[in-house]
């Protein structure tokens, strides 16, 4: 196959107009950002939830309430 100047110009223009690679990179960056936000949210809520359950457990223990059934 003989590459002429016109063929090279057409190939270069086609390559310059092709946006599929840029779109894929944008979607990849967006997916990474969403993932980072989810990880941060879960980590924050996980700590807050753990603290809440620990506080509730301490309050129930201080009130003399246990998780064992009574004989009454």
Automatic annotation (TrEMBL):
Residue intervals passing through the bilayer: 27-46
Keywords, ordered alphabetically: Membrane, Transmembrane, Transmembrane helix
Name the record gives this protein: Pilus assembly protein Flp/PilA
Protein species of origin: Roseovarius nanhaiticus
